[in-house]
Amino acid sequence: MAIGQAAEAQQAGPPPAVLVQTIEAKPLAAQMEFIGRASAIDKVELRARVKGYLGPRKFTDGDAVKEGQILFTIEREPYQAAVDQKTAVRDAAKAALVNAEGQLKRASELLRTNNGTQVTYDQRLSEHLQAKATVEQAEADLRDAEISLSYTEIRSPITGRIGRAMVSPGNVVGPDSGVLATAVTEHPMRVLFPVTQRELLEAKRENTAGETLVVQLRLADGSLYKEKGKLDFIDVTVDSKTDGQSVRALFDNTDNTLTDGQTLRVVLEPKDPPKVLAVQQSAIAIDQSGAFVYVVTDKNVVEQRRIKQGVSRDALTAVEDGLKAGDKVIVQGQQKVRPGMTVNPSEAPPPLASPSSAPAPSPKR
């Protein structure tokens, strides 16, 4: 009472105007934030498998490509000539086999009628088997030449997007030439992030009721990516150096915002957060005794209330103790008031902060 009388004695003139927030229960959940990296589901480094001059490229850097699309060509003529040569050898071997089959048939007939010898038959049989083996060897050599010929066309093994070409047409390339270009599949996109054993255990305990987590991404400019993802994999091994496991989230990435190798912040929170009493962060002051707010009574008199703070996010702080629903807390003009003063309160507009602009918690590494 002495404090109120002192405040009334100090107050002169009309009551100061303040903005207040009427306390009500709002859904507010703690967020966990981790540093992650985007990783394409399929990523292919295109390389030359045969040696030769590189022909004109069949794409523009950054193009969308389809599976089986020709991207590079290597001079075809030497490999086509090899195929033609192996074809001729194969055909000659087949002709020799036909002759050997005829000789074996005649030797068999002569042996059956006692007009030939077993030695002659055995020799013709050996010649037939050798001719057959020669055909098989010629066919294998032809297949090998045809495979080498097919390698003169470098095709995309996936549907996705291709990066810049690393080698210009006209250069000699081969198996040791390095990467010619890289193709990636961008739909969907994976995001990998490490989680410590302690955080995993906490998440499992809190998720015993089957609570679903909402997975979001915070981009480099601080905004939240419009698409929500889903957790689809936890690695089966623990990194002995960090005591963490890799967790993976999957995003559709229909607008190509996510790029392979991109650094992102992964934000996790419960899908259905509990409702708690929440106050604007601007209303909270801290002194040596802890956090407090100024509350306006039904008679427009200021009271100081000590509070216990909970989760803070989106310009709001959960109050675990010290306030009740319906209390009017001063959110603007606190510097003009003291406990026991009479004020002229007006309802404050809701805070402007949103999930995309609110300060992010310290990311986990």
What is the structure about, briefly put?
The protein has 365 residues and is an alpha+beta fold. 24% of the residues lie in helices and 34% in strands. Strands 1, 18, 19, 20, 23 and 24 form a six-stranded mixed β-sheet that branches. The chain has a six-stranded antiparallel β-sheet with strand order 13-16-3-12-15-14.
The CA-CA distance between the termini, in Å, is 52 Å
CATH class type of the largest domain? Mainly Beta
The rough form would be described as: rod-shaped
Secondary-structure content class: alpha+beta
**Major sheet description:** 6 strands, mixed
What name does CATH use for the topology of the largest domain?
A: conserved putative lor/sdh protein from methanococcus maripaludis s2 fold
What is the alpha-carbon Rg in Å? Answer: 39 Å
Give me the strand/helix succession: HEEEEEEEHHEEEEEHEEEEEEEEEEEE
Uncertain runs: 353-362
Q: What is the residue-mean pLDDT, rounded to a whole number?
A: 87
Q: How helical, in percent, are the residues?
A: 10-25%
Kindly give the count of domains: 4
Please work out how many helical segments DSSP would assign.
4
Number of strands: 24
Mind telling me which CATH architecture of the largest domain this is? Beta Barrel
- Beta-strand portion reads 25-35%
Task: Describe this protein's structure.
The chain has 4 domains: 101 residues, conserved putative lor/sdh protein from methanococcus maripaludis s2 fold, CATH 2.40.420; 94 residues, Beta Barrel (Elongation Factor Tu (Ef-tu), domain 3), CATH 2.40.30; 50 residues, RNA polymerase II/Efflux pump adaptor protein, barrel-sandwich hybrid domain (OB fold (Dihydrolipoamide Acetyltransferase, E2P)), CATH 2.40.50.100; 74 residues, Helix Hairpins. It has 4 helices and 24 strands. The strands form 6 sheets. Strands 1, 18, 19, 20, 23 and 24 form a 6-stranded mixed sheet that branches. About 3% of the residues have low confidence. By secondary structure, the protein is an alpha+beta fold.
